[in-house]
Amino acid sequence: MIHEYRTYTITPGELHLYLALAETRVQPTRQDRYGRLAAFWTSEFGVLNQVHHIWEYESIDQRQALRRELSQNQTWCDDFLAGAWPTMQRQEVRFMLPQMPLADVGVGNVFYERRIYRCPAGKFAALCAAVMARPRNAQARLLGVWISETPQPNEIVEIVAYPGFGERLADATTTAPQREWLHTHKLLLQEIESTVLLPIGISPVQ
Predict the structure, then answer these.
(1) Quick one: pLDDT at residue 170?
(2) What's the pLDDT at 151?
(3) How many CA atoms are closer than 13 Å to the CA of 119, on its beta-carbon side?
(4) Model pTM?
(5) Which of 106, 116, 93, 81 is nearest to 163 (CA)?
(6) What is the pLDDT of residues 28-87, one digit of tens each?
(7) Which of 44, 46, 39, 45 lies closest to 4, judged by CA?
(8) How many CB atoms are closer than 10 A to CB 159?
(9) Annotated domain spans of the chain
């Protein structure tokens, strides 16, 4: 199984236009025929005016075949792409190998935090194990952990659901459990990037 993580940077002031199309056109046209939608968010901290979505495929070959079919779907091209493309400034694609099934994190999560951990070449397996075991407060819910294949190998992606900002602050990097974890694994870590994400209506995870 492979997950495709797509990030679109939208022109400031036009995010609502893109979301109106996404909420009404994506699932009615695509359903699960062209890959299964696993999650769909907007960014709230980090780089703003972005949408983040994850699509699930059996393999990269299946993904390529289904994307070709989707590009020939005239309804998709006319009803969604024709309006969505003009709102976009940049599109980024990341292929990831899931290290666990997507967890059932329940409902009522206020936001999700996506972290990208970068490690020295060849250390991704050790870092992945460390991220899987990272201490989190009792209210945090681990959605998934992935090994990144492209565009950057030697990166681990982690997404955690939080019911509120207080619970996230309980996992701040200055707290004792996080300081200890960072110190223990400092030779595996080159960089950590964090983005706060809010689910939109069509997202299977809320």
Answers:
(1) 95
(2) 94
(3) 25
(4) 0.96
(5) 106
(6) 999 999 999 999 999 999 999 999 999 999 999 999 999 999 999 999 999 999 999 999
(7) 39
(8) 25
(9) 2-97, 99-199
Structure-token pair, residue 200 = 């939109």
| 93: β partners | 6
Whether the Cβ atoms of residue 96 and residue 181 lie closer than 8 Å to each other: no
Q: What is the 3-state secondary structure (H, E, C) of 130-163?
A: HHHCCCCCCCCEEEEEEEEEECCCCEEEEEEEEC
Residues 6+ apart with CB under 8 A from 185: 127, 130
Fold of the 2-97 domain = Alpha-Beta Plaits (3.30.70)
Looking at residue 173, its amino acid is T
| Nearest-10 Cα torsion for 91, 80, 24, 54 | -30
Distance between CA atoms of residues 63 and 69, nearest Å:
10
**CATH architecture of residue range(s) 99-199:** 2-Layer Sandwich (3.30)
Question: Residue 174: CB partners within 8 Å, gap ≥ 6?
Answer: none
